[in-house]
Structure formats: C-alpha cells, structure tokens
Amino acid sequence: MSATRLPLIAGNWKMNLNHLEATAFTQKLAWSLRDAKYDPAEVEVAIFPPFTDLRSVQVITEAEKLSLKTGAQDVSEHESGAYTGDISAKFLTKLGCSYAIVGHSERREGHHETDEIVGRKAAAAAAAGLVPVLCIGETAEDLKQHGAAAVPVSQLENALAEIPAEAELVVAYEPVWAIGSGSAATPEQAQEVCKALREKLTELRGADFAEATRILYGGSVKAENIAGFMAEPDIDGALVGGASLKVDEFTNIVKF
Ligand code: PGA
Predict the structure, then answer these.
(1) What are the DSSP calls for 84-107, one per residue?
(2) Are residues 205 and 127 located together in one domain of the fold?
(3) Which atom of ligand 1 is nearest to the CA of 101?
(4) Which of 53, 102, 194, 195 is most buried (CB neighbours < 10 A)?
(5) How many A from CA of 181 to the centre of ligand 1?
(6) Are 117 and 163 in contact (CB under 8 A)?
C-alpha cells in the first residue's frame, strides 16, 4: 500500500444472491461499515453483484446515500446490437456503476476469453466511463513452468495493447491456484508479482501512470490475512470472492 494511492477493497459476489437478497445484504453491509466507523476517504469499497441485482443495489445505495461503489462482473466488448445475452458498458454506467471486472479467470476458463477479448472489454468499459478491473493470474501449471510473474505480466501486456493509453484501470492479480482454494499466496509472493506488473506499467504507460494505478491481490483473501497483503508496497487492495459474502468478515477486511 502506498501513501498516494487510495486502497480499494472490491467484493466479487460471483453468481450469488438474487436481487432481494442483494438488497438486504447491501443494507446490512452499510450498517456494519458504519458501526465499524468506515471512512471512505481512507479506503474505497466496491461491490460487484450479478447483473440482475445492480438496479436494486443502485436504488438502495442512492436512497440511503451509502458510500459504496458498484461494478459489474463482466461487460461486452460491443456497444450495442445483435449480441444476445451480452451487457453493454453504457447500460452499466446508466445504473450508476463505477467499475467492470474483465478477464476473471472463471470467464477466461469457462467462456474461452483471450487476452485480446479481455483487452477489448476493458476498452469498451473505459469508453463508457467505467474503470475496468483487469484480472490476470497464473495457473498452478504456469507457476511450475514459468514462475509466478511471467504469465500475468504477459497477460497485462497483451490486454494493454487493446486499451487506449489514457484509460484509467485497476489491475487485479489473482493467481488461479489461490482462487476459492482457501490457500492464498503469501504477501511476499504477491508483492513480487505486483512489483513486476507495476514495472510493466511503467514501461508501457510511463511512471506517472504506473504510480497512480492500483494493483489488487485476489485469491482466498480473508480478514485474517488482509493486513499482510496491505503492508506490501505494490499491493493497493484486494479483490475478495467468498469472504465478500459475509458481512462481518468483509467489514473486517475493509478495516484491515
Ligand atoms: P476468493 O475469490 O476470494 O473466493 O478466492 C476471489 C476471486 O475470484 O475474485
């Protein structure tokens, strides 16, 4: 964590909570954060519900003036047209979203998304005024064959080739072997990769851009391990899956 970048704790709900459950959950989370004296000037909190929940979550966050940002878990690379089942970034902006996750490993694996597709999704998000949260990370096999940093650095480079140079983004380093496994990377391992990612950003986008860009760690983040990650100089927050569905646990992560 650096003194200049605002930490971001992002909750990726994945395919959990219907819109009624989402409304109740968001309200509880807001109360819990308030009780914990959460200060949005110190840490930014964003939640990423399923598409069908976004309108309900928007209604409650606006009505109650909650200091919670929202984002989508995916976005189309296209603006509009004959793309059955896809969601345009413009629709998300209209729903008050600030972010869109692109390239989560579950989409790379299950929906055959390449770095180029992911990069184009990020570009579409940025064009509509969203900040893309670009997910990258190596599998256990990649780790064995190439070490920790090589694959995520090349995923970053390939995606950046599709994204306009001035577009703000958040990078989320999520080793695939750590996601949902209960065994996170160590803070030292994650720092090593996040440092290499920042060096790649410096090379491709310049020092100011790299200094301003937030790089998150994701993969089995919990209240008990978040402080270790946040103590590292190149880790600016976390993308949290399972633990973001538990109000107390997520609050404790936000209060790292
Ligand atoms: P996890 O998921 O925290 O449940 O490991 C992280 C993610 O997939 O973003």
Answers:
(1) TT---HHHHHHTT--EEEE--HHH
(2) yes
(3) 9
(4) 102
(5) 9
(6) no
Could you list the active site residues? Answer: 104, 174
Range of the domain at 169: 104-224
Residue 249 lies in a domain: no
Pocket lining: 176 vs ligand 1, CB cutoff 6 Å = no
Q: Do 148 and 219 share a domain, yes or no?
A: yes
Q: Is the CB of 245 under 6 A from ligand 1?
A: no
Residue 54 lies in a domain: yes
Confirm or reject: Cβ of 242 under 6 Å from ligand 1.
Answer: yes
- Convert the pLDDT of each residue in 131-181 to its tens digit: 999 999 999 999 999 999 999 999 999 999 999 999 999 999 999 999 999
User: In total, how many domains does the chain have?
Assistant: 2
Span 20-64, pLDDT tens digits: 999 999 999 999 999 999 999 999 999 999 999 999 999 999 999
Minimum-distance ligand 1 atom for the alpha carbon of 12: 9
In angstroms, rounded to a whole number, what is the distance separating the alpha carbons of residues 232 and 191?
A: 6
- CATH number of the domain within which 179 lies: 3.20.20.70
